[in-house]
Amino acid sequence: MAALEPTTDQDVAAVLGTELAQGDFVLATIAPVLGHLLANHDNSLFSDEVVARVQGMVQNVANQILVVHGSNVGAADPRQFAVERETRLAGEIAADQALLLHCHALAIESQLTQRLHESGALDPVLSPLLQSLVASDDAQVAESAMGLLAAQARFIETQRRMELPLRELTGELFHKALVAFVETFGPEDGAAVERSVDALRAGFDEGASRIGLLARIVTGMGAGARAALAIHHAGTALFLTALALATGQDRPLAVLATNDRQLARLALMLRAAGLQPQEVEEQFLYLHPDIALPDGFETLRADQAGAMLAASCGFAGS
Predict the structure, then answer these.
(1) CB hemisphere CA count around 150 (13 angstroms)
(2) Are 267 and 284 in contact (CB under 8 A)?
(3) Number of domains in the chain
(4) By the 8 A CB rule, do 210 and 240 touch?
(5) I want to staple 265 with a disulfide (CB 3.0 to 4.6 A). Which of 62, 120, 257, 283 is the partner?
């Protein structure tokens, strides 16, 4: 692939800046394109695995909300009640681009995890770093690591089933899903919908989510979190979280940086996170073995890389 092939006649910052701008354009198209595909009920358009996963996750979020609502209104069969109404609610949920982007990032992460398992024998659940955390003498660290181990196993299984448990949404996205529910069914029976919203909120704990556990563990590692910036050691989930936290970027953006159309973003994020050029190259060997960093990359300072990322549009145009 030619995107980051070595060059000798251009300044490395200019090369990476151009690539980053092109990556911004790609990111800005993701949510609108997903929204268009999910709104079209011709199944022939859903041959792409990622789009199918996104559709499945959105449908599953709608279903879970409606099962609770069905129980609340006394439906004889809450699951059937939900099935009969989930397509309508899923359409409203899919209209929110932030929710779509979250589902898309999870699908990409799942795909990357599977690819690294097949190509590099990296366990999709128990990475070497997580194994060491589980065996920690610090009881609190070990307990958190065991919680993450279970959460990661659930993530792999729910992705196989194209599902997204409500507990795995961020607080903001959970709120957005509830707003879609209220706007869709509230006009019909506002009191019952409000009771269902209260029940759903009572069962939600953002801190217990896999994303929450990942962030808590990486943050708790302090300076040792640098070890999580080696994907072959940390595993995909911890690596992506550490990369996002180290660069101040949203986690979905860190996930999409691993895509082959975001090569400059990945190189800049790794450098901004504090990795030395040779360490960045090592991560590319795992993620994009056919890609060479541009000549002069070793002259790019971490603060320069961070400034370029800060000036990037990211998802802003979506």
Answers:
(1) 7
(2) yes
(3) 1
(4) no
(5) 257
